[in-house]
Amino acid sequence: MIIQAKHLTRDFKIYKARSSFHMLNQILRRKGEIKRVVDGVDLEIQEGEFVGYLGPNDAGKSTTIKMLSGVLQPTLGEISVLGLNPSKDRKKYAQQIGVLYGQRTQLWWDLPLRDSFDLLKAIYNIPQTDFTKRLHRFIELLDMHEFINQPVRQLSLGQRMKGEMVAALIHNPRILFLDEPTIGLDVLAKDRIQEFLAYINKEEKVTVMLTSHNMDDVERLCKRIILIDQGKVKFDGAKDALRDLVKQSKLLILEVAAGDMKLNHPLPYAPIKEEGNRLFFEVADDAEVSQIIAASAQSYSILKVDIEEPKIDSVLKELYLSKNYQAAPRRMVIEPINP
């Protein structure tokens, strides 16, 4: 396992707001309330996985990422990433991970974007040949030719986030932690960054752990989902297994011969809508899919069959509202951690 965490826990002390009366005395004597933000999380992530780490606001997602990346120390529990303790072996560890926070920057605001990469080359001691080859490939993949020499302060949000992505990966890390990387981006910029991340994961075998409220990222990139709520892992498995927790209808789409639509054949199953020569049916399970296809084939020449699964965002919304995690499968830690 490339990432392991056992009973990962993080507490914060929260102070209540007070009036200004006798303020100094209150500051000296005030007592904080302990809030457990991450509560006994166990994780096992294999090399090359692309994992969506999801949950509602204040679930503990960003705090977990900060502990895994070495920014925060856990209150309790153990972490081993690449055989290292993130908070204790920070210098060696930083060479092997990339981190991108959607609301923070690691670029130099007044310098041209290319100069920021040159500075990172010096910081990470990247050989010139490797740096040049890697940077040229990233510029091509992210279509950065037009703005690579502009100061960072002049870049649009989408352009800056492309730069942030390169900055997080220029030193060839084995693991990439992403916290809301596409927040606020337009469709084109988001699409290019998603393509880039898919490439990095597939071609360079970079292990990626993603937190995002943008469900397009999750649908397109993540094969595995870990769902956290109130600091605890509630689900750990494949996207399809997550969908199975919520009994939402699938959408069966039958494309039929255009001439058949004009004949207005009666169907034993009524479609919820028709568009051109396509018929749309809500279906609950595979048995109903088979029944509708068989019945429709009696009257129509079926050219194509598509089934659309419920969208991840609607599944998560229903789970968050219902808190119905009882049937959720979990991956358990089965190997001891040696930090």
From TrEMBL:
<dbReference type="GO" id="GO:0005524">
    <property type="term" value="F:ATP binding"/>
</dbReference>
<dbReference type="InterPro" id="IPR050763">
    <property type="entry name" value="ABC_transporter_ATP-binding"/>
</dbReference>
<protein>
    <submittedName>
        <fullName>ABC transporter ATP-binding protein</fullName>
    </submittedName>
</protein>
<feature type="domain" description="ABC transporter">
    <location>
        <begin position="22"/>
        <end position="255"/>
    </location>
</feature>
<dbReference type="InterPro" id="IPR003439">
    <property type="entry name" value="ABC_transporter-like_ATP-bd"/>
</dbReference>
<dbReference type="Pfam" id="PF00005">
    <property type="entry name" value="ABC_tran"/>
</dbReference>
<dbReference type="InterPro" id="IPR003593">
    <property type="entry name" value="AAA+_ATPase"/>
</dbReference>
<keyword id="KW-0813">Transport</keyword>
<keyword id="KW-0067">ATP-binding</keyword>
<dbReference type="InterPro" id="IPR027417">
    <property type="entry name" value="P-loop_NTPase"/>
</dbReference>
<keyword id="KW-0547">Nucleotide-binding</keyword>
